[in-house]
Amino acid sequence: MTAMKTTIAALAVSAATALAAQAQESWTLRFNHVLGPNEPFHKGFLAWADRVAERTGGRLKIDVYHSSQLGVEEDIIEQIRQGANVGQNTDAARLGNYVPGIAVVNGPYMVANKEEAFALADSPTMQGWIEELAEDHGIRVVCFDWVQGQRHFFTNRPVRAPEDLDGLRIRTPPAPIWQESIRALGATPVAMNFGDIYTGLQSRAVDGAELVYTNITAANLNEVLSHANETGHILLVNFQIVSEEWFDGLPEDVQAALTEECRAAGQETSAVIADALEAAKAELVRRGMTIVEDVDLEAFRKAGEKAYEVLGLTEARAKVLADMGR
If DSSP codes are grouped into helix, strand and coil, which group holds residue 63? Predict the structure, then answer.
């Protein structure tokens, strides 16, 4: 009996030790984004990190790195695919390099407002693509409720119709849907990292960029650009991604904290950005930028259809719109 009691006691101690070790287990996510520290998204990512740390009792820590401090976006995505404990703020255009259909979210005039962007989470077609990213490419989409606002063409001359972009080299991220969208709308796309835009404009490697208002104020791009042309050609929906292998190694409660707080912080940040865009526009007017509002949006919408046709995404687009009741 004494030996049995000793064995039982030892097992109890062992179990308690294992539970204590599990309770103390912790994880760190190094999260990278290309935007500067003054951008609303950076503050939103910090809020996400704080909430996750609080909800998990400090078991999951998110360290946020702005201005591509961990490296360029494409390199980080490859690290994610290899299982590294890194995350990245990205877009459907880049994810379309792995699952082509998902790129439609980044196409011309695809999503009209942030409410439609949030509703994408209920699309069976979108969910299928997200699972394909995880299962076949090792990329786990944590959430995509981060809406950066409508993108416009920023140039040094007025643009009111697609033909006004003829001959202009416009900076774009290096992804097919993005480049074909800008080409369809009338300009010549030039792939360039976000951090190189200012010097690219100074050296005349590009003639303009397509961005949101807050990008312009945060990076002082009004110093090298004079006109904001309100085409609103893309409502940029951002995706927060991590490694599927790393995510799968988290306990379910930690996974839930990561994803649920991502959605909450994203939707709150999207609302903040909606207000910030108007403030940024007013600031640019104060700085002397000309706002071109009399844009032929119908002509731009019609021109944008070609991007879906060229990339063979017309059917994929129709499926998502049908899911959304459009």
Answer: strand
CB contact at 8 A, 145 and 267: yes
Q: What is the DSSP letter of 293?
A: -
Q: How confident is the model at residue 16 (pLDDT cuts 50, 70, 90)?
A: very low
pLDDT at residue 204 in the model:
96
Q: Which residues contact 303 (CB under 8 A, 6 or more apart)?
A: 108, 162, 184, 185, 186
Task: Judge whether residue 133 has pLDDT over 60.
Answer: yes
CA atoms of 320 and 103, how far apart (whole Å): 11
The rounded radius of gyration (Å) of the Cα atoms in the chain is 23
User: For 264, phi and psi rounded to 5 degrees?
Assistant: -65, -50
Q: Quick one: tokens of 274?
A: 């909606």
Cβ atoms of 210 and 152 closer than 8 Å: yes
In whole angstroms, give the CA distance from residue 17 to residue 24: 11
Pair of tokens at residue 190: 């030039």
Alpha helices, H only, 69-165:
73-81, 92-95, 114-119, 124-137
Tokens describing residue 195: 């951090």
Answer yes or no: is pLDDT of 6 > 90.
no
Note if the pTM is more than 0.90.
Answer: no
Quickly tell me which residue has 């050296």 as its tokens.
203
By the 8 A CB rule, do 306 and 184 touch? yes
Residue 31, amino acid: F
Instruction: Give the Cα separation of 126 and 144 in Å (integer).
Output: 11
Instruction: Look at residue 251 and tell me whether its pLDDT is greater than 80.
Output: yes
Give the residue from 85, 95, 103, 176 showing the smallest Cα distance to 137: 95
User: Which residues lie closer than 8 Å to 123 by C-beta, 6 or more apart?
Assistant: 320, 323, 324
Distance of CA 209 to the CA centre of its chain: 18
- 86-91 and 139-155 as β-strands: parallel, antiparallel, unpaired? unpaired
Amino acid letter for position 272: V
- Domains of the chain as residue ranges with CATH: 27-323 (3.40.190.170)
- Mean pLDDT for the stretch of residues 85-107: 96
